[in-house]
């Protein structure tokens, strides 16, 4: 899969990012009481950039990598938005730690939802373990 980098987002997509994140936060606030009891780990708001790597046809992750906007994070996973549908379920996510370090996790896409009016997708991933270099 060919990934779109943040630099390739259209002007319209760049303007939509905060609206999408705000909309998803509002929806989450309405349902948080119901789902918070079912979650194994507490979710924290985390609006920031994380790395996303999707395997190419050879199952190599390093070939297709980009930054995406994250919305929330927990010990067991995170949520991010991306302007395209991702069909693969196994991905790698790089979470910034400090100013110049990234911790990579093997992850599985467990939830996806289209935010139709903004032409973005929200993804929820479950961490499967750290990537050992």
UniProtKB/TrEMBL annotation:
Molecular function GO terms recorded: cyclic-di-GMP binding
Pfam families recorded: PilZ
Domain PilZ: 38-128
Domain of life (superkingdom): Bacteria
Record's protein name: PilZ domain-containing protein
Species classification: Bacteria, Pseudomonadati, Planctomycetota, Planctomycetia, Planctomycetales
Family matches, as InterPro entries: PilZ_domain
């Amino acid at each position: 899969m060919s990934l779109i980098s943040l630099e390739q987002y259209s002007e319209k997509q760049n303007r939509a990012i905060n609206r999408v994140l705000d909309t998803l936060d509002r929806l989450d606030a309405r349902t948080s009481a119901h789902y918070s009891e079912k979650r194994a780990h507490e979710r924290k708001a985390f609006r920031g950039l994380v790395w996303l790597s999707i395997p190419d046809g050879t199952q190599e992750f390093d070939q297709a990598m980009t930054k995406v906007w994250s919305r929330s994070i927990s010990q067991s996973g995170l949520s991010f938005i991306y302007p395209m549908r991702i069909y693969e379920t196994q991905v790698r996510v790089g979470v910034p730690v400090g100013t110049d370090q990234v911790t990579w996790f093997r992850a599985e896409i467990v939830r996806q939802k289209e935010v139709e009016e903004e032409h973005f997708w929200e993804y929820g991933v479950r961490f499967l373990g750290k990537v050992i270099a």
